[in-house]
Specification:
Elements (H helix, E strand, L loop, with lengths): L1 E6 L4 E10 L2 E11 L5 H19 L3 E5 L7 H21 L2 E5 L1 H9 L6 H11 L9 H24 L1 H6 L7 E2 L2
Parallel strand pairs: 1-4, 4-5
Antiparallel strand pairs: 1-2, 2-3, 5-6
Helix pairs in contact: 1-2, 3-5, 4-5
């Protein structure tokens, strides 16, 4: 199963593709879509096109997106909401099931501690994926962590309910959004 993890950001949106098969996780690709322009509409267009291209190239079975959890000021929150909106639009157009995870859930799945710092998350992401160096940006590392979080949740679901039920039936979960 290919999983696309996405870490939304107004200046840099991270993405990470992993393969989860037979309880093993393998890194496929990761990177960052930079949109550090002052023109909001061209930034949103660039993020949308980037996510859509990644989805078309890799055809993931599931997409996991990190939830937005902070708003230091209203203007920043609105901009991040717009970024998240174009990401979800690209996901909806692909007709791929997507899941959402809070930063706390992601950190706990990857490090075992929900309040881990960025460096700890990067180190564990690198170890879990057997990478020889850190991903190019913290955003790419965070996106890989989101994908790993989803893989861990799938592993728990398989353990509790069996692989056939996981892949053969639609189930209702708090993190699932069927498109």
């Amino acid at each position: 199963m290919k999983i696309l993890g996405i870490d939304p950001g107004t200046r840099a949106t991270g993405f990470g593709i992993i393969e989860f098969q037979n309880n093993a996780i393998r890194h496929i690709e990761s990177g960052t879509i930079f949109s550090a322009t002052n023109d909001g509409s061209s930034s949103l267009t660039k993020i949308f096109a980037g996510i859509e291209t990644i989805i078309q190239k890799h055809r993931p079975s599931a997409i996991a997106v990190e939830e937005v959890f902070f708003a230091t000021n209203v203007k920043s929150a609105l901009k991040l909401g717009q970024v998240r909106g174009v990401i979800l639009l690209a996901v909806l157009r692909s007709r791929t099931t997507f899941y959402e995870y809070s930063p706390l859930e992601v950190k706990k799945a990857v490090t075992g501690y929900g309040r881990a710092d960025k460096r700890q998350v990067q180190l564990m992401t690198m170890r879990l994926l057997h990478l020889t160096s850190y991903p190019h940006t913290a955003d790419a590392s965070d996106a890989l962590a989101v994908a790993i979080c989803h893989a861990h949740n799938m592993r728990r679901w398989e353990s509790a309910h069996g692989k056939e039920e996981l892949h053969g039936q639609v189930r209702q979960e708090k993190n699932k959004r069927k498109i």
